Amino acid sequence: MTEGTPLSEKNPHVVRKGAEETGGEFVQFESTMYPAQDADGTGTHLPHERWGLDNDFEHVHPEQEEWWEVRTGKLRVAFDGDERTLTEGDDITLPAGVPHRHWNPTNEPIRVVWERRPAFRTEEWAESVFALAQAGKTDDDGVPDVLQSVVILDKYSTENPYFASVSIGVQKAAASLLSPLGRLAGYRATHSRSDLNDYL
CATH number of the domain that 117 lies in? Predict the structure, then answer.
């Protein structure tokens, strides 16, 4: 990836440092984010579909700290009663267990670097969620349907974000109860961009 390359020509989601490289301490990604759905740039066309990273719903990572840095553009972050806008070069750490939101408030795509600590299986989880969206298996917000979502949550219960407005215990119980139905219906938890032809 070359500095100065237009955002639309960059790989939309790459692993900069994987869990194996960091000994499981963290995993680091670089990603392009769409404008928020309610921004004037909702008609923005990028060579990839919206996915989970582009959602601004309030969520929580019970066992992982999250870190963000803005490469280009602006990122809006809300957590712990505070809301701020990060610009190029700014970074922020979101502690584990703290409900938060993050979104692109501008009308143009932005580029961010983000980490999760510890790494756990976040690399595998992110690839699965991203690949599903690129395969057209999510809604306009990049969200899979209920059965697909619970199958993913059941397998990646440590890595998957949880809705902040619902008890984590309830969400885990629902995933445990419904995921067998999802698997019977043919849904699987793990996906890869190399599998995209399977959906055609």
Answer: 2.60.120.10
Q: Report yes or no on 2 lying in a domain.
A: no
pLDDT tens-place string over residues 29-52: 999 999 987 665 556 778 899 999
State CA 89 to chain mean position distance. 21
Please report whether residue 48 resides in a domain: yes
The structure's pTM equals 0.90
Secondary structure tally for the chain: helices H, strands E: 4, 10
For 111-169, the pLDDT digits (tens) are: 999 999 999 999 999 999 999 999 999 998 899 999 999 999 999 999 999 999 999 99
- The answer to whether the beta carbons of residues 67 and 149 sit under 8 Å apart is no
CB 27 within 8 A of CB 123: yes
| Closest of 38, 45, 106, 41 to residue 75, by C-alpha | 106
Can you tell me the distance from the alpha carbon of 153 to that of 37, in angstroms, rounded to the nearest whole number? Answer: 24
Number of domains in the chain: 1
Q: Does 3 map to a domain?
A: no
